[in-house]
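Subject: sequence -> structure tokens, single chain

Hey, anyone have a minute? Need the predicted structure for the following. Not urgent.
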Amino acid sequence: MADVNSGLLSRHGATAGQSAGRSPAASPDPHLITFVELLFFAYRDFTGEADAALAEFGLGRAHHRVLHFVNRNPGLRVADLLEILKITKQSLARVLKQLVDQGWIVQRAGDRDRRQRLLYTTEKGAALACRLDTLQSKRVAQALAKAGIGAHVDSIVARFLFNMISKEERPQVTELLPEPGTAAPDKT
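Reply:
Had a minute. Here:
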């Protein structure tokens, strides 16, 4: 697959939304396709600065997601993290091992159930998670301000993003998200 190196995508050949053997009537609303494309580009740039900061330490996006949720939810059970991230135990084990071995996260046995593995960021891990949160929060705040929306979490943007989450997952997400400006309570 060739990389796209130009600043703009070429729309020569088939028109947008058309491909060989597909009728234009079967195409989704072009305005919605534009929103889908905007989401692709927004996600690319939303993660870009954090990816660069993580690369300084030989870490990637999977490490970021683990750091983020562990930092926001001290004492998070490994089983709960698997459910949040929707990844396999094998995938998490590889990422978690790196984060533990490099001193970003510590694992402790549960007080009530010693078989549980509870996760906490170290001081170093919390500092990196905060740095990444700051980079991404700044981008979100700037985008909201430029759109004339403001940084209110109860805005139409927050409702839009929430409704992008599958209906079945919304209750878990609601339970997971702490009040704005706070960390989730320690799970122990």
